[in-house]
Amino acid sequence: CHCALMRIRGRREAVLRLAASEGILVSLEAGHALAAGLEFARQASSSDVVVVMVPSSGEKDLDALEIRGPT
Fold it and tell me: Which of 5, 3, 26, 4 has the alpha carbon at shortest distance from 16?
């Protein structure tokens, strides 16, 4: 399904965006919540506050995210 592919790309993009902008690496599972929160925030008014809980780190997803640490 094209919609499922968009969700997968959205969660990966959200995880990488948070890692790049804030230095916080969360799991791909948490990326679903991040992607949904970003979409919600786009539709919210500028006075709204959006809070997203991300309960897990992204250490186990480093290979899937194609992130390489120092060697």
Answer: 26
Helix (H) / strand (E) containing 66: none
Query: How far, in Å, are 16, 19, 35 from residue 22 at the CA level?
Result: 10, 6, 15
Report pLDDT digits (tens) over 31-55.
888 888 888 888 889 899 989 888 7
CA 47/CA 70 separation, integer angstroms:
41
pTM surpassing 0.85?
no
Q: Which residues contact 62 (CB under 8 A, 6 or more apart)?
A: 68, 69
Cα–Cα distance between 9 and 21 in angstroms, integer?
A: 18
